[in-house]
User: Fold this.
Amino acid sequence: MLPVSRKPLVSDFTSSAAPLARRRLWLGLGCGLLTSLIWGVQAVVSRQSVADGLSAADVTILRFAVASLLLLPLALRRMRPFPVGALGWRRALILTALAGAPYALVLVGGATFAPALHASVIVPGLIPVMTVALAFAVMGERPGLWRMLGLSLVLAGIAAFGWETFGSSRPQESAWIGDLLFVANAVMWSVFGLLARRWGCDAIDVTIATCLLSLLILPVFALTMPMRLGDSAWPAIALQALYQGALVGVGALFLYTKSVELLGAARATLFLPLNPVVTALAGVALLGEYPSGIEIAGMLLVIAGMSVALRAR
Assistant:
C-alpha cells in the first residue's frame, strides 16, 4: 500500500516563515545600528584629523581614493556606460558636485573649527528641515502637522547650539565658521536628496558614480589647497583612509542599503537620531570633548524632533 502524501498546511508555512521573519528583523536592526555607529563616529574621526595635523583636502583625497579602489570591481560589473551607468553624465556630475568630494571637503573643513558634536547634530538635524522647505518651494509639497512639530523641535535644538557658539558666557571663537559649513552641508545634501528622488536614482549607482567621479576633482584639491600628508604620521593617515574610505565610503553604504532591504526605508531612517548620541559618547571617550549643558539640551531637542519628523507622514 502506497503512502498517502499530505498536502502542506497553511500552518506549516506560517511556522517556517516566522523564524525567517525574526532573523530578517534582527539582521536589519543590526545593520541599522552599525550604520549609525559608523556615521556617529565619523564626526569624531574627522575631528581627530585636525589634531593629527591633516588638512581637509588630505582627508577628502584619502576617503575617495580608498573608496573608489574598493568600489571599482563592482563598478566595472554594474555601471554601463562606465562610470555613470543609468544616471547619465549630466545627472551624475550634478549629484557628485552636491554629495561627492566637495561635500566631504566642506564637512571635514567644518570639523577644523567646530566640535564633533556640532557636525552630528546640525547636519542630520537640518537636512529634513531644508528638504521640507525645498520640497514646498519647488514642488508645492506641504508637510503635515506632526512633521512641522518635529522640525520646530529640531530648529530649537540647533538654536541652542547657536547660543552656545555666540551668546554664552564662554563663546567658542571659531565654532561659528564650522557651524556655517555644516549648514552648507545640510543644504547640499537636501538638494542632492530631492534631485535623486525626482530622477528615481538607484542608491548604489549614485554612490559608485559620485565616488568615482570625485576622483576627477581630487587633483584640483591637491594643487590648490594645503596638503600635509607628507608630514603626517602613518597611523593618522591609515585611520582616515580606513575609516573614511572603507567604513564610511563602502561599509556604511552596504549596511544602510541592507537595512532598507530588510526593514523598509521608513524603519531604516529611524536609526538616524542615534547618530548624535554616538558622537557625543565617542567625543568624550576619544577626544575629551565634553558637551555643555546647553549643547546636551540642544542635542536632545534635535533627537526628539528628528524622531517625530521621521515618524510623521
